[in-house]
Amino acid sequence: MAILKPQIYILDFGSQYTHLIARRIRQLNVYSEIKLPTVSLEEIKDAKGIILSGGPASVYDKTAVKYNPEIFKLKIPILGLCYGQQLMAQALGGKVSPGEVKEYGFAELEIEKKKKSRLFAGLKNTEIVWMSHGDYVSKLPKEFEAIGSTKDCKAAAFENKKQKRFGLQFHPEVTHTPNGMKIIGNFVKICKCKKNWTMHNYLKQAISDMREKVGKRNVFMLISGGVDSTVAFALLNKALGSKRVYGLNIDNGFLRLNEAEWIVKKMKSCCYANFHQADASYEFLDAVRKITDPEQKRKVIGKVFIDVQRKVLQSLKLDHDDWLLGQGTIYPDTIETQGTKHADLIKTHHNRVEIIQQMIKKGKIIEPLMHLYKDEVRELGKELRLPADLIWRQPFPGPGLAVRVLCAKKASPIKNVNKINRTLNAIGKFHDVTGFVVPIKSVGVQGDNRTYRHPAVIIGNSSWDTLFKVSGDLTNKVREINRAIFLLYPGKIDPKKLKIKETYLTKQRLDLLRKVTAIVDKAVKQKRVGMRIWQFPVVLAPISLRGGESIILRPVYSKEAMTAEFAKIPWPVVKLIVKKIMKVRGIDAVFYDVTNKPPATIEWE
């Protein structure tokens, strides 16, 4: 039963933000649908507009994504974003070239007000926008004109007013383009769309879809205790009834302090008699005991989840063929795990490991929330009348603290380390700071591609504004860097005395991080600075000065996790947190991650 009908079609070229475009359109109460670029005109015949997404490829080389060129013959508005803008330019006779300067992060867009573009109606002469690209449009097609530029990109925005064709080099869909919603709203108006999306309508559609997919089978739902899986569990109970849904929470040993007990207490308070918990902490810890690679760690943890689920299924004497596996997967989980045909793999989420992918192909998985973002899941939770303290829990990764305890056999080699450090200090000199590169690595996302690169340490007396600028300069200008961390304690570090300890995932290290995470959480709550913070990972890193390890604080602001800005906690609170952490035995240093996403991911692994 089709309750919602799409009005705008988004052609996905592999951007990490493709579904975020759909989310922004839903915020305008308009429903859209994502299609492959090779979509036939018959499939989108009722479209009122088309958006071409960004993507990690280059339009001029062999990685270019195949698409249906007939779309440009349609007499409806078309908006190209980043890769989509470049594709439009090349397809219609323009030229795309590699950029001498790669833009990752904030930029100032100068709008050509005299051109009076409807796309920029209501905007100022200068707007802050979010860039993530290496190529640029070096020559415009005929009958197109530039309507906006940045310091490093003359055709950051262009249009063909007569044919209603628009191209933007930046991403209006991310929250870091402050007036991006106005731009998307203007495009929706140009398309003459009618409002047809509400969360109430989505709930009715989701219930109808689940009943159709499940049929006469039942659902075995894995519940982490976070908002996603809890809302999915509530939704399944509403659609199918509690007798056809079995909820299982697996304690993997990677939870925060006293979290397993909290989850049981909270689910009982919601009157879910079909909820149970299994302790499998030994199985998980044993499986990852000697693993240091973050991708391998995530994949192993994902497989163990399924192994434990199947053991429980067998112990209950439930027929495997009669039960689907339910997961609280949301869209950011899928896109970072190469969830669309042309996307790059950023990191493998535990609910997207190979065994899960095989089960998806066989129709053995049901994921009621897979097209939603965290803020939409919370809206749905309200619609289902779940308690506020469940709905507003901070996001926590499925593998838990396992991906916040960094492991290493030895230091990660750095080519041309002296040259890199000279470059870092030359850049830092403009901001009155010094720094050096650290021989460990973390995951990042730059230009829609996964990176696995080194962090740079920043040392000096700096304000948040200065750290914001120097972090952007380092990650934009030094290829080997995808993250910057500010030294909070001690005041100075001699890079020659810094060691990378041989460390693995052990209960002792997990307990150490549990203790520090509890200290941080308590301080943030007591000082009431956590309301704006989307997520506050605390990382244990094998960076040793006196035989111990280091803590990296990673609080971020975000709304949907696809982009994030490092959180600027008041300095007195930061100093209080550091003071308390340094009383914990085994901690040598404390750092503060001052990198936005992109170029860094929120989690380090």
CATH topology of the largest domain: Rossmann fold
Quick one: overall form?
A: globular
Would you tell me the overall average pLDDT?
A: 91
Q: Architecture of the largest domain in CATH?
A: 3-Layer(aba) Sandwich
Helical content band = 25-40%
Q: By CATH's scheme, which homologous superfamily of the largest domain applies?
A: HUPs
Secondary structure class reads alpha/beta
**What distance lies between the first and last C-alpha atoms, to the nearest angstrom?**
41 Å
Q: How many domain regions? A: 3
Layout of SSEs?
Blueprint: E1 8-11, H1 18-27, E2 32-35, E3 49-52, E4 78-81, H2 83-91, E5 95-111, E6 126-139, E7 145-150, E8 153-160, E9 165-168, H3 180-190, H4 199-214, E10 218-222, H5 227-240, E11 245-251, H6 259-269, E12 275-279, H7 281-287, H8 294-315, E13 323-326, H9 331-336, H10 354-361, E14 365-366, H11 374-383, H12 388-391, H13 417-429, E15 434-437, E16 442-446, E17 449-459, H14 464-477, E18 481-489, E19 499-500, H15 507-526, E20 538-541, E21 543-544, E22 549-553, E23 556-557, E24 565-566, H16 571-581, E25 587-593
Parallel strand pairs: 1-2, 1-3, 3-4, 4-9, 10-11, 10-13, 11-12, 13-14, 17-18, 22-25
Antiparallel strand pairs: 5-6, 5-7, 7-8, 8-9, 15-17, 16-17, 18-25, 19-21, 20-22, 23-24
Helix pairs in contact: 4-5, 5-11, 15-16
